[in-house]
Amino acid sequence: SRTVARDAQGVVTVGGIDVKTLAEEFGTPAYVLDEDDFRARCRAWREAFGDAADVFYAGKAFLCRAVVRWLTEEGLNLDVCSGGELATALAGGMPAERIALHGNNKSTAEIERAVEAGVGRIVLDSFQEIVRVAHIAERLGRRQRVQIRVTVGVEAHTHEFIATAHEDQKFGIALADGQAAEAVRRVLKLDSLELVGIHSHIGSQIFDMAGFEVAARRVVQLLTDVRDEHGVELPEIDLGGGLGIAYTSDDDPREPHEIAKALHDIVAHECAAAGLAVPRLSVEPGRAIAGPTTFTLYEVGTVKELSGLRTYVSVDGGMSDNIRTALYDAEYSVALVSRASDAPPMLSRVVGKHCESGDIVVRDAFLPADLAPGDLLAVPATGAYCRSMASNYNHALRPPVVAVSGGKARVIVRRETEDDLFLLDVG
Ligand code: LLP
């Protein structure tokens, strides 16, 4: 992130604090989050999209009450996809009308809570859910603003588990075979629902703008069909999240203003061609805001050199604080951050302390050959989908999130303790 630097002794500082101090004060492993960088990314998205659009941060990337406060202050909205995320959003003070509720299997309780709180939109994900949300809103005497999530049928070039625009999957209603048009018909008949727009999310960690452009074109086509059939111009479209970030130097991510321009241009062009007023656009970046703001700070334990192969560098965390390497073959980089070293590079694999060989944090990396127990390593770009997907595997205690800004560090999510484990273990 932006405020990272190395001092004369080779010690890395972030937000004006050096990593040795952070490790002493907060322990390792720890997620170290650069608050100024987080806020700057929020502002970059807001400014790129302008007042005619809304930016909904995708809370699944990483959410806690401090983050909700930053988002609220920086003028972002918030996308939540569970009761827990909704509770966090409300507890953090996000105004309900700036919250969107997602999910392919929202429970009755989740829908009730969202409608009662007055969330700005619920994104309908199936035919059954149209009826479910309508009944709940009716029972509560509300008219709920909704969008319909469609699958536009493009293949996003990303890992299969995080691609969501092809039709053979659990999310959304297909544009194909008139499915989405039928969903619109049904929603328009229900008095307790106010259909405000169409939603598409094509996937995650995407670099190629083409998928977004095809999605935008097809969503505008649906808006055109709706106008022609019902005489109604839906006022909003949401094109989801998914913008990729740089995990290693091989990745070349697009900037918010690039995606904003591409989306605004294509939507404006398609709407002009169809004679539609340009709808209010929204997007849902998660990774692109949270990801680059954070690195995981680990302490090196065992260093095992397998001659002719590689060196296994064990750190004091692993797949419990970063499952992405094991789950998606994700690539990360790593650096020695507690001192300088002139030692030659050695081919290394950074592994965790869990009881399985797939417990890899960084599959291939070059680290100095004099690496020793007690050295500190940093793995960058762990702000998205690491703490939020962390587990207690092997009864690991999930690491804290430490926010740094202006030479000060504070815990925004504390480290788990053994007492926390026993709080749940009530037998
Ligand atoms: N909107 C919707 C409806 C989504 O499902 C997602 C992500 C986003 C927005 C935010 O996408 P982003 O801008 O963060 O790419 N755990 C996986 C990523 C799963 C993404 C799920 N949905 C990973 O670690 O790569």
* Residue windows where pLDDT falls under 50 for at least 5 positions: none
Q: What's the architecture of the largest domain, going by CATH?
A: Alpha-Beta Barrel
CATH topology heading of the largest domain? TIM Barrel
> How many strand units?
21
Number of domains: 2
What is the approximate shape?
A: elongated
Q: So what's the CATH class of the largest domain?
A: Alpha Beta
Mean of residue pLDDT values: 96
CATH superfamily of the largest domain: Alanine racemase
Main pleated-sheet profile: 9 strands, mixed
Secondary structure: helix percent: 25-40%
Bound molecules: ligand LLP
The radius of gyration over CA amounts to 23 Å
Number of helices: 12
Distance linking N and C termini: 44 Å
Strand content: 25-35%
Walkthrough of the structure:
By secondary structure, the protein is an alpha/beta fold. It folds into 2 domains: 4-33 and 292-424, Lyase, Ornithine Decarboxylase, Chain A, domain 1 (Beta Barrel), CATH 2.40.37; 35-289, Alanine racemase (TIM Barrel), CATH 3.20.20. Helices cover 31% and strands 25% of the residues. The protein has 12 helices and 21 strands. Strands 4, 14, 15, 16, 17, 18, 19, 20 and 21 form a 9-stranded mixed β-sheet that branches. Helix 2 (35-49) runs parallel beside helix 9. Ligand LLP binds next to helix 10 and helix 11.
Write the layout of secondary structure elements.
Blueprint: E1 4-6, E2 12-14, E3 17-18, H1 19-26, E4 30-34, H2 35-49, E5 53-58, H3 65-74, E6 77-80, H4 83-91, E7 99-101, H5 108-117, E8 121-124, H6 127-139, E9 144-151, E10 173-174, H7 179-188, E11 193-199, H8 210-230, E12 236-238, H9 256-274, E13 280-283, H10 287-290, E14 294-306, E15 310-315, H11 324-328, E16 335-336, E17 345-351, E18 360-368, E19 376-380, E20 401-405, E21 408-413, H12 418-424
Parallel strand pairs: 4-20, 5-6, 5-13, 6-7, 7-8, 8-9, 9-10, 9-11, 11-12, 12-13, 15-17
Antiparallel strand pairs: 1-2, 2-3, 4-14, 14-15, 14-19, 16-19, 17-18, 20-21
The structure holds ligand LLP.
Ligand LLP binds next to helix 10 and helix 11.
